Amino acid sequence: MDHQEDNFAVSHTHDFDEFNILLPFGPELVYEIELNGEKQTVKAQATVFIPAGTAHNARPLAGEGIFICIQLDNERQMERSKFKKQRVFV
Q: Are 29 and 62 in contact (CB under 8 A)?
């Protein structure tokens, strides 16, 4: 995979928490994750928790895989949903 110096995502914030999940297709998947200006190298399999209000961005460095972003913005998601109440059946 050819990675350029451009950011995968520009630094941004949310008013809700977020999880980033990295799952490799092969022997490795490496991302650079920046949280409030501090860069960290993260190797998959990994989960990164990003609290609300944290400036963050990410970019792939090596390998192939899946980058999953889960945004915990339940109020906004429920406004968009045809289901106005969450139901759990066991």
A: yes
CA distance 37 to 19: 18
> For 55, phi and psi rounded to 5 degrees?
-70, 130
Residues 6+ apart with CB under 8 A from 32: 39, 40, 41, 42, 58, 59, 61
Spans of all domains in the chain: 17-80
| Residues 38, 55: Cα–Cα separation, whole Å | 10
Q: What is the pLDDT of residues 19-78, one digit of tens each?
A: 999 999 999 999 999 999 999 999 999 999 999 999 999 999 999 999 999 988 767 666
CB of 48 within 8 A of CB of 20? yes
